[in-house]
Every structure is written in C-alpha cells, then in structure tokens.
Design brief:
Blueprint lengths: L2 H9 L1 H33 L6 H31 L28 H36 L12 H12 L6 H32 L6 H8 L2 H15 L28 H6 L32 H6 L22 H8 L13 H20 L11 H4 L7 H22 L6 H5 L4 H10 L10 H15 L5 H17 L5 H52 L4 E3 H20 L4 H22 L7 H14 L8 H15 L6 E3 L12 H6 L3 H11 L6 E5 L5 E9 L5 E5 L5 E6 H10 L1 E3 L8 H21 L10 H18 L4 E6 L7 H9 L4 E8 L2 E6 L4 H11 L7 E6 L7 H18 L4 E3 L6 H16 L6 E10 L2 E13 L14 H28 L6 E5 L2 H5 L3 H12 L6 E6 L2 H5 L1 H12 L3 E7 L16 E4 L13 H14 L3 E5 L14 E10 L1 H7 L6
Parallel strand pairs: 11-12, 14-15, 15-16, 16-17, 17-18, 18-19, 19-20
Antiparallel strand pairs: 1-2, 3-4, 3-7, 4-5, 5-6, 8-10, 8-11, 9-10, 13-14, 13-20
Helix pairs in contact: 2-3, 2-6, 3-5, 4-6, 12-14, 12-16, 14-16, 14-27, 17-19, 18-19, 19-20, 20-21, 20-23, 21-22, 22-23, 25-26, 27-38, 28-31, 29-30, 32-33, 33-35
C-alpha cells in the first residue's frame, strides 16, 4: 500500500475520531497497567520465595521502573498510535539483505531473542483466545471504513502490537532478563484485565457511528468471517500454485497463518520451525474453528446480564462448565430442525407438511394446550409424554411435525431436569414451564435456532441458575416457582412474558454468581494464607537445621522448639520481622543448645544467674506470653533446671529439617524412574486455574469441579464445585492419581447449552431407532450386556479369591446368532450354562461353569462345523483381567477377528501378559524390527476431498509396513502375548519412521505433509507408548499437527478410559485424531466423543445403501448432524457411489491411491519451501 493511500486513510475523519477515542481510552489504562507492574516488582523484591540475589535484582528493577514509569507509559501509547499511519498492508514482506549480519550466517537467531519471542508469542496466543471476537469485529469495521480487504488490515491495537510496543518501551530502561520475564507475565495479566473494556469502548464508538452495528451478532451466529476468508484464500492458492515464488513472496501453502488479523507476518518460532511444523495445512483437518466467543459468553463482571450479552464482551472466567471460553457446539441449524420436523431421519419416504394445514393444526394444538393450562393441568415428570397427552399421531406430515416439535420440548425438559438430583423441590418446579414451552414450540418451532430468543435465553439462564444454586434452598425455590408460575399463568403467545421472566431469573442467577465468586475468593485467600504459612514453616525448619545441625539434641530443647519456639519463629517471619531480629532468635536458641550440649560433654553447668538470664531472654522474646499454657511454661523451667545441673540432660535424635517429598531436585530424580507417574504429574501441572473437570465417584455419581487455586511450585491444588464451595484439596501426587482414576476432562456435549444438548440427545435416540430397524435385535434374550457384565464381574471376584472356574464365550455374526444349539450341546456335555444374552447387535455372550478352554474349543468346533459363518471367542475368567468389561471386549474382539479370518472355529484368548513382561517383549521386539527384521517402509497417498468442492483435494500419506497400514488381522495366528507385543512394536516403528522422514524433509527444506498412522488399541493402552510417541516427535522436531493417529472403532475403544486419556493427550498437543470403521451397530456413535476425535470415518459397509435397505441415507444424515453438533467431521473412505453424498451431511471423501511409494520418492516430489 502506497504512502498516498496511507495518508488518505489517516485523514479520514472516522479514522481520526477512532484514533482520538483509542488515545483517550488507553491513556489512563496504560498508566494503571504500569503501576500494577511496578507494585508486582516491589512485592517480588520482598518475597521470601526468592533467593536474596533475585530479590535484590527485583528491587533494582522496581526502582528503575518506578522512575521511568511515566516515560514508558507514554512510549507505549505513542507507538500504538503510530500504527495508524500504516493501517493497510500491501501483502509484501521485507526480505533480508544477503549481507545482513544476522541472516548471512544460515539465518540463525540469537538464543535469548528466540526464547523471549517464544514467551511473548505464548502470551499473545493466550490473549487471542480470549479477545478474538471483539478484535475481529474491530478489524472488520476498520476495513469497512477504509474499503480494503480485512486480511490486509494491520490492526493498531491487536495483541501483538501491544506486546511489541511494551517490549520496545521497556528497553528504554536497562533491566535484567529475569526481571523482564517477571514483567512479561505481569503486563499480560494487567493488560488482559483492561482489554475487554478497551475493545468494548472502541467498538462501541464505531457502532455509534453506524458502522456494522450488528456485526457481533453475525459473528456469534456464523462464526469467524476472517477465518473463512483465509480458508478461501488457501484453497485458491492450492488450486493455482505459484511455480516461482519470487522475492517478497512466500511459497504457496506457506503463507503466514496468523492467529488474528494484525499480528506480525511470521514469528521467530514459525521461522525456526515452519518447515517441520507448518501451520498452513488445510484447516479441514481441524475439529472446528474457535472464534473466542459464542452466544454463551458473557462479560466478566455481569456474565449473564442481557445488556452485557448484547455488547458481546467475552468473559475472562469460566464461571461454569462450558461458559467463559469459546463454546464447542454450533447453534442448532434450521436444516437439522427441518429434518426433525419433516421426518428427514425416518427410514421411509419423508413428505413435507402442507404449510397452511400445519399452521391450522398448530393453532389447534396451541389452543388445546392453553385449555389444559386453564384447567390447572401440570405436565409432571411422572406423566406420559406431552405428545401422548395431546393425542398427537403420526398419521400425516402435519401431525408428525407437531409430534417432533413438542417431543423436542420433552427432551429439553429431561435435559434440564437431569441436571438436578432426583426428588428435589426445584426439579418439580420445572414442571410449570413444560406446557408454555410446548405451546410456544407449536406456534414458533424454530425458536431453538435463535440464540437471542427470550425463551431460549431463559432456558440457558435456568441452566446457569440450577448449577449455581445450593441444593434444597427454599428462597431460590420460591423465587423460581413464582417466575415459572407467572409464565404458566400469563403466556398466551406474547413473548414479553418470557422476557420478563428472563430478567427475574437473571437477577437471581447474578446473586448466586456473586455468592459463588465470594466463596471462591474466600477459599483462595485461605489457601494463600495456608501456603504462606507452609512456606514460612519450611524456611524456619531449614534455618533451624542450619543452626542446630547435630544429630542428637537435648530432649527438653526439642520439646520447647516443637511446642513453642517454632510457632514463634513462623509468626515473626509471617509478620515480616526484620532479619536482624530473626537472627537474634536463632542465636539465642543456639546459645541455649550449646549450654545444654556442653553439660553432656562433661563441662561445668551454668550458675543460677546465668541460667535465669538465658531463660529470661527466651521468655522475653516470646509475644503474648499470657497465652502460654502451664505445660508450655514448664518446658522453659525444665531447660533452666538442666542448665544449672539440677536435672540431667537427656539426648534424642534430632527431628529438625524440612520434611517434604517435593523437594527438588530429589523429587524430579525419583520421578524420572517412574515414567507413567511422571506423565500424569506432567499433565496435572499443565492444568490451568479455572479448568473444569468431571469427577466420577464410585457410586457412579458425577459432578463438575473446578481448579480454583494452585501454589507457585505446583504441588498443592484446591477444587470447588459449581457453587464455589471447596470440595477437596490435593497435593501433586494425589492429583495425578485422581486424573488417572476419577477426574476426567469434560466431554464435548457437556460444553453445549441445554438447547443443543437436548437436540444432541434427540439425535442419539433417532440414530438408535434407525439402527434398530436396520439391525433388528433377536426377541428372546435372558440378559442384556449390563447384566452380563455384572455376572462376569461376580465370577472375576471369585477367581481372584479361589482361582478361575468359569469361561465366557462370544458368538459374532452379521445378525445375532441363536445360542440354543450351543446351550443344548453344553448341557448334553454336562457343562452348566450360568447366563446368556446379547453383548451387542452382532454378538451373543454365554457364561459357562468350566475352566477348561480345551473342552469348550472342541465342543464349539463340532457345534458350528457347518452353517452360516460365525466368529467364536473364548476367554477364561481369571485374575489376569482387570475388569469384566475387559473380558467381554477381549472376547468380542477375538470373535470379530475369527469371523473374518477363521469362521466357525473357537479362538481361545491367550494369557494376558503382566505389564512388566509385556514391556520387555515390546522392547525386544522393537529392537529386532529396527535391526535384522526391519519391515519395508512405504507410503500410500490419500486425497481428502471436501464434498462442497470435489475439484480440490488435500493430500495425506498413510504409513505402511510391508505394504500394510494395519497388521492386526495378520497377527492373530500368534499367541496373545506375542501378538500384542508385535502389534505395539510395529506401531512404534510407524511413528519412528514417520518422524524420521519428516525430519529429513525439513532438513532438505521441503514441505512436510500430514502422515496418517493406523494405531492399534493395544499400543494406545501400553503405558510406554505415549512417552515413545512424544519423545519421537520431540527429537524429530515434526509439527504435532503433521501426524494423524487413526483408531479402529470397537467396544473396547469406546469404553476404555485409558484409550480416552491417550487420545486426549495427543489432541492436547495438536495432533489429529481419527476413528475409522465407525458403525452404529455397536451403539450410539456419540459414545466416541470421549476420544475427542477430529474425524469420524464411517464403516465402508454402510455405503452405498442396499436395494432392500433404504434407511441408510437417513442413518448417515443423523450421524453427520450428531457429530457436527460437537464439532467433528464425518468422512467416507473410497465410496463406490458418489450420488447423494453431498445431501447426507458427509464432510469429506477420502480417495486412496493404490500405488505405494517409497520415502525417497516422496521426498523428491515434495515442493521446496522458500523462506
């Protein structure tokens, strides 16, 4: 952009007014931020947690910052305002000169500068996550004023601009790097506290000038406009790549992928890592794009007030699960509602209702509901569904639409009510709103999709109020009953009733929120005080040990220290007593100890006057001696008597010294020997304050808890419930174990609002209904899966006490296999059948009373020697297994493999190896595969096509070993132990080869594609595999988003907590997660959300639909809508029929190129990346 254009932009009166507004907004706030930073340095300079040298450095920095505070604030403001002179970018980058001293030597970056830039980049990223919506709104409004592409706008006050101005200004005073590191965090904290108001007032100025006044609502509804523009730009560049990227131009596909408009064109971290960790890959691989704001976000001070909701200020505190951060769920779309209302999820032919007849029938239903309300009828939880009470049938499209619409209200009520414990008064009060919502749904069924509708807002507000309200609070229950009773009494189609109720419930919820925040503040203050006392105690203990290092000390002195003197020293330290006074206290104690120890060595005792003088000094040093008990006073008398020789001096082993398991470096050295515990400790320390977790108790009771406090050393943590009450405190190892056992991250659907959550539940029911029609369940079954699990669990407990006595059998086929012939054969053989039933839609389970798998193997072989193909898995119920679920999952997996590989043959599951044995086997197998038995490494290209644009594709490369992506089916001939070890070792080789190849591509300056790795469940469950993966990625420098880990759907995958932990760990570092062969015959595909996958790849057998199976398109549609609601993509791989794919919600189609290529071939074909 030329200088003339910049000058024209700067002279625009609206830009000039904006500049003046920003100057008036920033001036007082920048001074406040600098004052807070100065105070922070002063506090550090007097902190007992820092060494004396560090405190001295902080004080010097405090003095320098204090003197230069005004100058720095003015400099920051001046630098920010100067950015208005260059609002529009010309899209070019300044290239370094070949003679540049920095770039002439291989483009190396000074290490200190690199680390500083990484620290700043991390803070910028954190800020962008919180303020992306108002910042994007400001960018778009400025672009509107200057009539330029928003992507070319260089924001004068974005996060990067603030930090660049701050770092430039802080360089005016010569500060130590450690002091600057402290200041970086302080600047970010204090700036973030002000940014909400800064951006809010700036946007408000432009709104008052009538510049895009409805922009925030549009961004909430449609998502990020800038991100869509970037994606469109990338797509165009991929389709028409530049063959020669000249000076000032980046290679195609490697444009700067800034997280927000206005940020710098490329960070030092990107410059150092962009080849191996390129972020410019197609975002279609990502789960969803967050905009930093949603309709659920609220302002920090009044997070639920309608006026702040309208302003669109994102909250800075996650006051409830799913609030205060970017929400995962997309709003309910009109298309989903239309499909629900018009039978779009039915297996038959759907017919759209006639609009006129539907309006007429809806009016009749609304009148019927109004009459029921006038008669005082309340639709309680124990009553039939409302569609049954209204006698709505599915005889015609109009009736069907109304059934579905009012059925959604039933589902919504169930979702809200389930958030409350059963048999509570507040849960019964919610019955009052069912009929009004049903009446509204009949006349205005699409209120679900409007996030600003007062009825929808009321439901959200009720959810917040329910979470914040203490159980069985009469005051809250009375107010809620009054509000809901008013709705039930007065609603006649006028939305002002809901608006008035929304205001009342908001006031109540705000009161509860303030109480929650007060509770949290009180507990945090208490924890801070407790922590300060513990630190003082450790400091005193260490000082006592330094002054009294003897291994044995007088018993009387140790008792005096334990009961009186230690508390006295801690009190002095907490009161910030000057060091000279403290030194005198320790010297006095040392003098007393010397007197007593000299007597034990045979030296003369003190005379009476000397002993009394020393005793008096101890007494006078104590504060508030009037509160000492008689016993404590007697301790001082005992010391005086021993000093004079009146009583002998007894020695005891010293108990002084800091007693903590977290003392460094000892703790880290011990932790290094326990890799599994180390991983959980690392995860515990990585959880930020404000994070919500779900606690699953032994009684299957679930509650949400929030981390409200942690100490600076990350060894103590405090958690509160949704009302802000402290529920437990954990030290580091306890927290790590609880993360492994009971504390889980929130599922994606738990981050949805009640409206979206109810639609999610409705779609799950629809999917289950369609799956039941497609795979009908056999009529006669004595036990269901849950009961079979309980039965095996009983036998498992017996096996741990007395040894194995039972076996479990699973029969796997296309349809549930009738077990009558098998039971008859078992009975004839004298083997008792304890239980039988259905494990899944394709698997039947039998529990038999015999530990002899050989007899069973022969018996099932005779029984199923002829007939339809059936997979048979046999498992001995023994103490080798951890749970009943593991036994059934193992037997079902074995039967499924037998169905494909060895039908009608009983496959006996081998003995489960102990962890240590398996670890040795995996390592030895891996070393063999890396040595003499190295499998052939090759790759296969997969083109991912977006269904909305089948002309363009994004390539990824599947990692193969000996031509196979997944060798699990080939390993079944081996025994269980060897099969598991080889499967895990092969997956290790895949990861190692992919990382090595990526490192090679980066070293040669070539583009790094996405590598697709099929990982077995056995590998993911092995405790060393995650460490191996993380180490391989770290050593190679590959970007974590360059690896896509894919798992095959199974009951084991869905139900294993360890597998969910594994995928969540990879997801948290940016790796892509995919689940293939997803089939609803195993149950609702919604179960897979615990794995947090980016992509769901459907089972190939589901498409195309068979001629006698017209329900398959509806099944695909409901699966797609279900997973879109939680931000997951749905994929078909290598479909033979492309018709209808664009109409059933499929996001991508994968096309596998059959030819394999070598690593050398891939390297030669990848484009060079120009820096």
């Amino acid at each position: 952009m030329s200088e003339n254009i910049d000058t024209t932009v700067a002279l625009d009166p609206r830009i000039s007014g904006l500049r003046q507004t920003i100057e008036s907004v920033l001036t007082p706030r920048m001074r406040l931020v600098l004052e807070e930073m100065t105070e922070h340095l002063f506090n550090l300079s007097s902190s007992g947690q820092l060494e004396s040298d560090a405190r001295a450095e902080c004080f010097e920095a405090f003095a320098a910052l204090k003197n230069g505070q005004k100058l720095i604030a003015e400099s920051v403001l001046k630098l920010l305002l100067e950015n208005f002179n260059h609002l529009v970018s010309n899209g070019t980058q300044t290239q370094p000169s070949p003679t540049d001293p920095v770039t002439s030597e291989l483009g190396l970056v000074d290490r200190d500068s690199f680390e500083d830039e990484l620290a700043i980049e991390k803070l910028v990223k954190l800020g962008l996550e919180r303020f992306s919506l108002p910042l994007e709104a400001l960018t778009l409004r400025i672009a509107e004023i200057v009539d330029e592409d928003p992507l070319d706008i260089r924001m004068p006050i974005d996060l990067r601009a603030f930090f660049d101005a701050y770092r430039t200004a802080i360089a005016l005073i010569d500060l130590d790097r450690d002091a600057i590191a402290h200041l970086d965090g302080s600047f970010a904290r204090n700036l973030f506290a002000e940014l909400g108001n800064i951006y809010g007032e700036t946007n408000q100025y432009l709104i008052d000038a009538n510049i895009l006044p409805e922009l925030e609502s549009r961004l909430e509804r449609e998502g990020s406009i800038l991100e869509r523009r970037r994606q469109s730009k990338r797509s165009r560049e991929r389709i028409t790549p530049k063959l020669d990227a000249g000076p000032g131009t980046q290679a195609p596909g490697y444009e700067s992928n800034n997280a927000h408009p206005g940020s710098s064109a490329g960070t030092l971290e990107e410059q150092a890592r962009s080849i191996a960790a390129n972020d410019a890959h197609d975002r279609r691989h990502e789960r969803f794009q967050t905009t930093g704001f949603s309709s659920a976000s609220r302002s920090p001070d009044l997070p639920m007030a309608p006026e702040t909701l309208a302003k669109g200020t994102p909250t800075s505190r996650a006051y409830l699960p799913g609030y205060g951060a970017a929400r995962l769920g997309s709003p309910v779309t009109p298309q989903v509602l239309n499909r629900l209302y018009t039978g779009g999820y039915s297996t038959g032919q759907s017919v759209a209702p006639d609009a006129a007849r539907l309006r007429h029938r809806a009016g009749e239903v609304a009148d019927n509901i109004a009459q029921l309300r006038e008669q005082g009828v309340i639709a309680s939880e124990s009553d039939p569904a409302m569609i049954d009470m209204l006698n709505l049938t599915a005889d015609n499209p109009e009736e069907q639409a109304l059934r579905e619409s009012i059925g959604l209200v039933d589902s919504l009520y169930e979702t809200v009510a389930n958030a409350l414990p059963e048999q509570t008064a507040l849960r019964r009060k919610l019955d009052l709103i069912k009929w009004p919502l049903a009446q509204l749904s009949a006349s205005e069924p699409h209120f679900y999709e409007n996030p600003e509708h007062p009825a929808r807002l009321l439901i959200d507000r009720l959810g917040e109020m329910i979470a914040l309200s203490p159980a069985n609070n009469p005051r809250v229950e009375k107010r809620v009953e009054s509000v809901l009773d008013t709705i039930n009494r007065d609603f006649n189609g006028d939305l002002s009733v809901f608006t008035s109720a929304l205001s009342d419930i908001t006031d109540l919820a705000l009161q509860l929120l303030r109480q929650q925040q007060r509770n949290i503040e009180r507990h945090v203050a208490a924890e801070e005080g407790r922590e300060r006392r513990q630190l003082a105690n450790q400091q005193v203990e260490q000082r006592l040990l330094d002054k009294l290092p003897e291994l044995q000390l007088p018993e009387s002195l140790l008792k005096f220290i334990d009961e009186v003197w230690r508390d006295h020293l801690i009190f002095l330290l907490l009161r910030d007593t000057d060091p000279t006074t403290l030194d005198r206290q320790y010297a006095l104690l040392r003098q007393t100890a010397d007197g007593l120890l000299s007597i034990t060595r045979g030296q003369e005792c003190l005379d009476e006057n000397q002993a009394q003088g020393l005793s008096r000094q101890l007494w006078e040093s104590l504060d508030n001696t009037q509160f000492l008990t008689g016993h404590q006073q007697a301790l001082l008398t005992d010391i005086q008597r021993e000093l004079t020789g009146a009583t002998p001096v007894a020695l005891l082993d010293s108990t002084l010294g800091v007693k903590t398991i977290y003392r460094e470096p000892d703790f880290s050295e011990r932790l290094a020997t326990k890799p599994r515990l180390k991983r959980w400790v690392r995860r515990a320390r990585g959880i930020d304050v404000g994070t919500w977790l779900s606690e699953q108790s032994d009684q299957s009771y679930q509650r949400n808890v929030q981390l409200i406090w942690r100490n600076e050393s990350l060894t103590r943590f405090a958690f509160a419930n949704e009302q802000g009450h402290l529920v437990f405190e954990l030290h580091l190892l306890q927290f790590a174990r609880q993360l492994h056992r009971r504390l889980r991250p929130l599922r994606p659907d738990q981050n949805l609002s009640f409206i979206e959550r109810s639609v999610f539940a409705t779609l799950e029911k629809k999917q289950t209904s369609i799956a039941a029609e497609l795979w009908p369940v056999a009529e006669s079954r004595s036990l269901d899966r849950e009961q079979l699990v309980d039965a095996v669990q009983t036998n498992l407990r017996r096996a741990r006490r007395r040894g194995a006595s039972h076996c479990a059998l699973v029969l796997f086929a296309d349809a549930p296999t009738k077990t009558g012939a098998l039971i008859e054969a078992l009975t004839n053989a004298g083997i008792a059948v304890e239980a039988e039933g259905l494990i899944s839609r394709r698997a039947s389970g039998v529990i038999v009373e015999t530990p002899d798998t050989n007899v069973l193997h022969a018996l099932v072989g005779e029984t199923f020697s002829s007939g339809s193909p059936t997979g048979i898995g046999l498992v001995l119920i023994s103490s080798d297994y951890q749970s009943a679920e593991e036994i059934w999952s193992t037997a079902e997996d074995t039967a499924a493999r037998g169905y494909s590989d060895s039908p009608n043959t009983g496959l006996v599951v081998g003995k489960v190896p102990h962890g240590e044995d398996l670890q040795i086997a995996v390592r030895s197998t891996f070393e063999s595969l890396k040595g003499d038995l190295t499998p052939t490494f090759s790759l296969r290209r997969i083109d991912r096509l977006e269904t909305s644009d089948l002309e363009s594709s994004e390539p990824m490369y599947q990692v193969l070993l000996d031509g196979m992506a997944d060798a699990s089916s080939e390993l079944q001939a081996l025994s269980g132990h060897r099969s598991v070890a080889l499967s895990i070792a092969l997956d290790c080789v895949k990861v190692s080869n992919a990382c090595t190849l990526a490192e090679r591509l980066a070293a040669e300056g070539r583009e790094v594609p996405v590598f697709h790795l099929a990982i077995s469940s056995d590998a993911a469950l092995h405790h060393d595999f995650l460490d191996f993966v993380l180490d391989a990625m770290s050593r190679s420098g590959i970007g974590t988003n360059r690896l896509c880990y894919e798992f095959r759907d199974s009951m084991r995958l869905r139900q294993s907590i360890q597998l969910a932990d594994f995928t969540n760990a990879l997801r948290s570092i940016g790796s892509l997660i995919s689940v293939c062969n997803v089939n609803p015959s195993r149950g609702s595909t919604g179960q897979l959300q615990v794995l947090c996958p980016h992509n769901i790849v459907l089972d190939p057998s589901l498409w195309p639909p068979a001629e006698d199976n017209p329900g398959s398109p509806a099944l695909h549609q409901v699966i797609s809508d279900l997973h879109h609601l939680v931000g997951e993509h749905v994929i078909l791989r290598d479909p033979s029929d492309m018709s209808q794919i664009q109409d059933i919600g499929i996001d991508f189609v994968d096309r596998t190129v059959p030819d394999e290529i070598s690593a050398d071939t891939l390297v030669s074909t990848m484009a060079h990346v120009k820096r």
